[in-house]
């Protein structure tokens, strides 16, 4: 009924154009009606006709700006014409700033937003737009000042609080971000995403109970939002509530079964609680949705299969990945940066070593190191293989190199200690275990720290 009624109005406009004196606004009216009907080509023709009738009406150019969404250069031209007609049109400067941003002229856009603010210093949205651009250009403090002004002018605009909270996060002001999300919730108590965001900051600032309440509220408000369950799952896992976290991941996957973040998150949690079979099921199910097609994806699946105990499956994936990727260049296809092959060789070497194929592992580590000579982990792991093959001096050289490249590689000190002990240098071994223990403690690995201390006591 509405469409027929609108079409009838269009026919009336068209008929009366033949009987009445013509004006640009009258021609523009059918254009507005056609717009409602989805007749884009007709709309453009009507606005062209309006401009011919009255080329000094800036609104005609601004309307054509809106219609030229697929042609940014045309949009720039239309906004230029509108400004030429009316140099005090705030809207025209706002439109031109948008087109300039898309065309890469961010400094020009900044000038336009500043001009819009000069013309109308009480327009809150202009400050918000300029704040976004200033932030993108690296002027974080200037952006913060603009967000502050926008909120001062319009303290009920939720978008400004969200944007300022994001900026304050970048600046390290977590308390400020928390306050903004609290204000956003005050303005819109049913905005589920605001509770999820505030929960993150409450947790980081030590208010775990408040964070849990916010996650619960977000889920209560939007029980079909998978990301809310995922966020609460991560939070619960960090608190040690692994079963509660697993329940949340289960619900999130039920809502969004193809989401890689959720699937891998549950797989990692299952691995943590010792359910490697469940972790493998998650990974295999995910790759059924997204079958591997290049070296990068085969390598990724190989990594997870190896981590969760499927050594043979991992080996097959790495073999395929290497067949597909033979260059050491960092290839980019579209926006996707592919895995450099040296990591694929290192991955296959790890699997081969775990399967007892020390010679095959040695070959792969040699290739990985040749491709990336500063890869300290590869030297450390090759040292392990050389030690297994009885080449203690070669192993010692590799551990030395790994430590030279990365003095914080605690495993390299541990492994070098064993080789030095096997070579009869007991005091050097104890010194390495002490260095390893200190690094384990510094890095938060209390289990390895305790093991290193026990070895020192045993061999002293």
Provide a brief overview of the structure.
With 460 residues, the chain is mainly alpha-helical. Helix content is 77%, strand content 1%.
**Total of helices:** 26
Number of strands: 2
Tell me the radius of gyration: 32 Å
User: What sort of overall outline do the alpha carbons produce when their principal axes are compared?
Assistant: elongated
Mean pLDDT: 85
Low-pLDDT sequence parts:
1-40, 328-335
H/E element order: HHHHHHHHHHHHHHHHHHHEEHHHHHHH
Question: Could you give the order of strands across the largest sheet?
Answer: 1-2
Helix/strand-derived category reads mainly alpha
Percent of sequence in beta strands: under 5%
Which percent range fits the helix content? over 70%
Distance between the termini: 93 Å
Instruction: Summarize the biggest pleated sheet.
Output: 2 strands, antiparallel
Features:
two-stranded antiparallel sheet, 26 helices, mainly alpha, 460 residues, 1% strand
């Amino acid at each position: 009924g509405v469409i027929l009624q609108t079409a009838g109005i269009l026919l009336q406009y068209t008929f009366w154009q033949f009987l009445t004196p013509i004006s640009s606004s009258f021609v523009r009216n059918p254009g507005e009606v056609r717009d409602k009907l989805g007749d884009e080509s007709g709309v453009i023709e009507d606005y062209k006709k309006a401009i011919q009738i009255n080329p000094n009406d800036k609104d005609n150019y601004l309307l054509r700006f809106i219609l030229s969404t697929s042609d940014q250069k045309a949009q720039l031209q239309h906004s230029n014409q509108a400004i030429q007609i009316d140099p005090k049109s705030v809207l025209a400067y706002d439109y031109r700033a948008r087109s300039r941003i898309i065309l890469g002229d961010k400094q020009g856009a900044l000038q336009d937003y500043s001009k819009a603010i000069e013309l109308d210093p009480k327009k809150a949205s202009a400050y918000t737009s300029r704040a976004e651009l200033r932030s993108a250009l690296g002027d974080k403090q200037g952006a913060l000042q603009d967000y502050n002004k926008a909120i001062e002018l319009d303290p009920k605009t939720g978008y400004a609080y969200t944007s300022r909270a994001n900026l304050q996060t970048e600046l390290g002001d977590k308390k400020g971000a928390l306050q903004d999300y609290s204000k956003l919730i005050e303005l819109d108590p049913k905005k589920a995403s605001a509770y999820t965001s505030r929960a993150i900051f409450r947790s980081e600032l030590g208010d775990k109970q408040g964070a849990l309440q916010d996650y619960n509220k977000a889920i209560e408000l939007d029980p079909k939002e998978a990301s809310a369950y995922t966020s609460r799952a991560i939070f619960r896992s960090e608190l040690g509530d692994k079963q509660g976290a697993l329940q949340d991941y289960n619900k999130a996957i039920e809502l969004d079964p193809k989401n890689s973040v959720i699937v891998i998150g549950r797989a990692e949690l299952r691995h943590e609680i010792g359910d490697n079979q469940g972790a493998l099921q998650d990974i295999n199910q995910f790759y059924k949705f997204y079958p591997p097609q290049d070296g990068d994806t085969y390598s990724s699946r190989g990594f997870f299969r190896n981590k969760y105990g499927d050594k043979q499956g991992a080996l097959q994936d790495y073999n395929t990945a290497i067949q597909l990727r033979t260059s050491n260049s960092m290839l980019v296809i579209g926006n996707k940066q592919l895995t450099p092959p040296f990591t694929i060789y290192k991955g296959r070497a790890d699997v081969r070593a775990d399967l007892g194929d020390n010679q095959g592992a040695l070959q792969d580590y040699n290739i990985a190191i040749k491709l990336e000579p500063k890869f300290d982990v590869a030297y450390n792991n090759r040292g392990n293989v050389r030690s297994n093959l009885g080449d203690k001096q070669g192993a010692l050289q590799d551990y030395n190199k790994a430590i030279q490249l990365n003095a914080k590689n605690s495993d390299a000190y541990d492994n070098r200690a064993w080789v030095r002990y096997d070579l009869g240098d007991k005091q050097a071994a104890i010194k390495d275990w002490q260095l390893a223990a200190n690094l384990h403690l510094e890095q938060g690995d209390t289990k390895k720290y305790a093991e290193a201390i026990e070895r020192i006591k045993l061999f002293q």
